[in-house]
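Quick one:
INPUT:
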């Protein structure tokens, strides 16, 4: 890549995550009076392009929310994270929040119960001193419309809304400052299936209409495939596979992704899935230091997997990047 091209590519990357690791110490003291250190994220690197819908998928406990919290500056980490060219720091906290906003799983706890919806939506503009009073009111009205609520909702309290309507308010609040990145962490998991589907469609519609990148976090590969341009599959704090959403869904190359994919009921009749399943817990292989993180549960593991594989691009020349961390990828 020429220097000019590489700087053009860098400008198109709104999030740059480089070699990020995160650990926490257990509360209880161990046998030698020391707290045990547990690593959650292991050397995670990825970039999210401007205006891209990026999906992060993986089973519960693999570190998805921890990565989101690292990006939001809510937990300490090693490595580098930049959003819109900025690293989070105490001094630039206010400026940073203009660029990065988040929508979480539980809309009720995210909304101040004592404030009316209009005030909640207006608050970011008040804090950042954006626009006149009239302009702020107009923007609140416009945002209610954007998220599919009529103007009368401005005077209601969060308890007077359904779960889906509250999540619409949270999405609206996240967009008031016109951020460059919105993180949605399991944003439909607490909703029933039909309401969740409506919220997914809302995310897609708003993303089509406005300019921002989305980091959509879910344990459901199907949902991520439906929404996203690119996907990263996280397992035990490491990226196992990353690439175009369609490519990964149709041709998963890592055994872990294939298991996630096989767990989805087949919506395309006639297309046979190669069944794959985790090695049962009772047959799981003993932990080997330095092995592939998936070694214990992988149905395809061989002796060579006792050495950790690198994340390798398996795309054919000229095709978009498809990264896989597996010696035995298919
Ligand atoms: N400060 C902490 N104290 C205790 N455990 C922690 C801490 N931080 C992270 N963990 C653990 O790290 C692991 C990853 O947590 P994280 O919330 O990132 O997972 P997740 O992929 O978001 O899971 P889920 O899909 O259930 O939301 C979990 O096992 C969690 O219990
Ligand atoms: Mg989580």
């Amino acid at each position: 890549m020429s220097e000019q091209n590489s700087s053009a590519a860098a400008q198109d990357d709104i999030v740059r995550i480089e070699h990020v690791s995160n650990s926490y110490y257990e509360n209880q003291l161990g046998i030698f009076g020391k707290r045990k250190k547990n690593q959650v994220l292991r050397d995670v690197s990825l970039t999210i392009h401007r205006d891209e819908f990026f999906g992060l998928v993986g089973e519960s406990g693999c570190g998805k929310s921890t990565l989101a919290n690292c990006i939001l500056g809510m937990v300490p980490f090693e490595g580098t994270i930049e959003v819109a060219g900025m690293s989070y720091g105490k001094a630039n906290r206010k400026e940073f929040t203009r660029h990065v906003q988040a929508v979480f799983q539980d809309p009720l706890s995210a909304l101040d119960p004592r404030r009316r919806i209009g005030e909640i939506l207006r608050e970011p503009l008040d804090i950042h001193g954006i626009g006149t009073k009239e302009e702020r009111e107009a923007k609140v009205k416009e945002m209610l419309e954007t998220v599919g609520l009529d103007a009368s909702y401005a005077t209601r309290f969060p308890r007077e809304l359904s779960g889906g309507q509250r999540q619409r308010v949270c999405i609206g609040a996240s967009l008031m400052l016109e951020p460059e990145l919105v993180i949605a962490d399991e944003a439909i998991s607490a909703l029933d299936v039909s309401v969740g589907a409506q919220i997914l469609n809302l995310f897609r519609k708003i993303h089509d209409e406005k300019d921002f990148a989305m980091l959509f976090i879910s344990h459901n590969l199907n949902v991520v495939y439906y929404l996203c341009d690119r996907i990263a599959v996280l397992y035990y704090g490491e990226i196992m596979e990353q690439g175009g959403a369609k490519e990964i869904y149709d041709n998963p190359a890592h055994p872990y992704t294939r298991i996630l994919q096989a767990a989805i009921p087949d919506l395309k009749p006639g297309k046979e899935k190669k069944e794959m399943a985790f090695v049962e817990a009772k047959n799981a292989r003993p932990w080997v230091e330095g092995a592939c993180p998936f070694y214990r549960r992988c149905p395809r593991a061989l002796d060579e997997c006792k050495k950790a594989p690198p994340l390798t691009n398996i795309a054919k020349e000229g095709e978009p990047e498809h990264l896989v961390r597996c010696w035995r990828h298919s």
